[in-house]
Design brief:
Chain A has 432 residues and is an alpha+beta fold. In chain A, 28% of the residues lie in helices and 27% in strands. The first copy, chain A, has a domain of 94 residues: OB fold (Dihydrolipoamide Acetyltransferase, E2P) (Beta Barrel), CATH 2.40.50. In chain A, strand 6 and strand 7 form a beta hairpin. In chain A, helix 4 packs across helix 6 and helix 4 crosses helix 7.
Chain lengths: 432, 432
């Protein structure tokens, strides 16, 4: 479904008749205009929202932004254009010539020939003030306007770029994309509290059950992907997943997007880690090269210094240590932890942070976790005296655990034994 | 989250030591192997599932498929490799040399030097028979195996290609991708029956409400996108949407994926239709050029002749007629319709089919629908005597309505009047 909030009608009258004097002005985005090399008076039309107004005796300076980039385009107009309607927040259409800017702040500016106000903005009613940096908590109150701020604009552009990069990476690597179901009757490995789904009219007809069985929002597409990898070898999904955990932390959302992949015929964790490292690096590099200014802004105000750390990560090969080595490193640490590191216990956030720092702020794969910590389907390493499985987690500076994965147990008798010990044989009969 | 069902362990022992006689065999997909021009004895490893076995006196022919393409790779082996384990459905790893095939059926074949059975298949227990074409209803019983059939493999590869093409199209056209929420408290324009969402543990604590208000699965991201288009100008989403309509037809699914886009500053339906036509053509051309064999199979067994029709559509410009013209065409038709065509009434499937045929099996945009048929936010054309809005539907041969869209009403007093008439002023106060 498509739509367009058509904000400008006045233009229509002139658009049907050809303009005799000039070639028609090409409509370009702000990003497109700013990217013009050696601007030489090209006639263009730019549409967007006014970010700032500076009125001088004979000249009017506007900054216009259309969300295509963090930077705004400087519009230079004759003071005769000055009007009360050209205010912070108003939407405008500007026709004019792209020229080299005399200022060092930008390469290009737009010499306005015509400015139309598409939509007024009542500056008094508008909740954001010009040049003011509003805290994120304040912006939360205006979900329909907050994406017009620099910070949320940048975050959403970065997210959009990363999403596209992830799709491209898997496509270029020969993976088949699968839309795994959102409504499902299985709860995967009991990854958390579930949301149940029922038709809202069910209240009226309580004896009727829409799907015949109770259904939930998916917590993971893993089981569906495993089935699909038995047909396509390499598959991935990138869809919404849900957890009904009622905790207020930035690590627990009710709804979030997750990338999941399954590969058949994989022989070692090494191959798996290579896919993970490539995915991380390709995505990060795409974002860095396609929206460097957005990254800079985010890292200036949200995670100071993170951009340098990211570039440091991209230059180096990721490290690999075993869970057992990780516990040894933690035991020898001079730092005091809230949770004492011990073989067989989960790694806590404080441990993950220490490990990453210990490794020189380079992402580190931790492999071969204790069997007791991991779900039944991970491949038994048959080692001793401490029993481990071929699982891997990727710890990343500033994030903690980013990816997790494992070789899957394919040997039927191992699965049978393990399920029997866990008392799950009946529930997972179909796996066998 | 990543995983790999590791099916082959035997190989590991030899992978760590370098092989003295040969260069290591590169692992290639079946698609990759089939695409080699002038095969000249390259040493490769191919993994996949056996699709057919033909044993002759001195030679054994296998067809191996890994899901990367519809076609299988022919493996030619010495009869000494013959074993009961090399059966239909088994998974194998084959090392050998890629050579030119003497047969005209394929360019390339794999001369096997080593064949490992990764996973046995009990042909008696396997529900699909070799060379048999099973009806789709039968395949439905085996959701975990059916994607190994030609027909479902093709459909899912086509879907994956189309998904990637849609993402690329919007990215290349400067749209920002937005993940609109799946769990939401608004029901858009009342597009249908809703699914309600509650934590499954709620049954135990009935007085507690997870989100404080009733929440539903989204029926459309349109309202969220409209807000976002006010910041980024051009935005799109491609996510799951839900309808709780309890009807068993191929047009009504409880869960389906929908592409939605919003564009600010759009001046005419013409511009909107251009985006729709480009999206359709780009996606169709990508699918046709990236998986022609899959398309052929689908169109041979699911929609006979559809491929030619598709190519016919791609060669021609789409047509545009007004709703009023469409009704005139239907009234003058020699065909008898179940629903008599009349100005002011919805176009039914039979009408859509007739219109598309009448237009020479080329997709046709129907524009300017009666105001009474469309939701309040579509732009009033202020025409007479028959009152219409600037809405557009794209009718496509073999499909019916594929896209719908409209210019959005931006004039506040029009919205107020319309909402008042519909008695919706209070519910939609926030729009104004």
């Amino acid at each position: 479904m498509f739509g367009a909030r058509c904000l400008l009608r006045a233009l229509r009258s002139c658009s049907s008749a050809p303009c005799p004097r000039h070639r028609p002005a090409a409509r370009v985005s702000v990003r497109g205009a700013l990217g013009v090399q050696n601007a030489n008076g090209e006639r263009v039309t730019v549409q967007g929202w006014i970010r700032s107004v500076r009125s001088q005796k004979e000249v009017l300076f506007l900054h216009v932004n259309d969300g295509s980039s963090l930077e705004s385009l400087q519009v230079v107009a004759d003071s005769s254009f000055d009007s009360r309607e050209l205010a912070f927040g108003s939407s405008v259409e500007v026709q004019g010539q792209l020229v080299k800017s005399p200022s060092k702040k930008q390469n290009v500016e737009l010499k306005a020939e015509k400015i139309e106000v598409v939509g007024n903005c009542d500056a008094k009613a508008f909740p954001f003030k010009y040049k003011e940096r509003h805290p994120l908590e304040y912006l939360r109150q205006y979900p329909h306007l907050r994406c017009r701020t620099n910070i949320l604009g940048s975050i959403l552009r970065v997210r959009s770029e990363a999403t596209a990069a992830i799709h491209s990476f898997f496509k270029d690597s020969g993976f088949v994309h699968i839309h795994t179901p959102v409504i499902t009757s299985n709860d995967c490995e009991g990854a958390g509290e579930l949301f149940q789904v029922e038709p809202s009219s069910k209240i009226k007809v309580p004896e009727e059950n829409f799907f015949n069985i109770p259904v939930f929002l998916t917590v993971s597409g893993q089981l569906h992907l495993e089935v699909m990898s038995g047909a396509f070898t390499q598959v991935f999904t990138f869809g919404p997943t849900f957890r009904a955990e009622n905790s207020q932390s930035r690590r627990h959302l009710a709804e979030f997007y997750m990338v999941e992949a399954e590969i058949s015929f994989l022989e070692s964790l090494q191959d798996l880690m290579q896919v993970m490292e490539s995915l991380f690096k390709t995505t990060a590099m795409t974002v860095l090269s396609n929206c460097p200014k957005d990254v800079e802004l985010c890292h200036k105000f949200i995670a100071p210094g993170q951009k340098d750390r990211l570039e440091h990560m991209l230059k180096n090969n990721f490290l690999i240590i075993s869970y057992t080595e990780a516990v040894e490193i933690l035991k020898q640490a001079s730092q005091n932890f809230t949770f004492t590191p011990e073989w067989g216990a989960d790694l806590h956030t404080e441990h993950e942070k220490y490990l990453v720092k210990h490794c020189g702020d380079i992402p580190v794969f931790v492999i071969n976790y204790p069997r007791a910590l991991k779900p039944f389907y991970m491949r038994d390493n048959e080692d001793g005296p401490q029993h481990t499985v071929a699982a891997v987690d990727l710890l990343v500076p500033g994030v903690g655990e980013l990816f997790g994965g494992s070789l899957r147990e394919e040997r039927c008798h191992f699965l049978e034994q393990r399920l029997a010990r866990l008392g799950l044989t009946e529930a997972y009969q179909w796996v066998l």
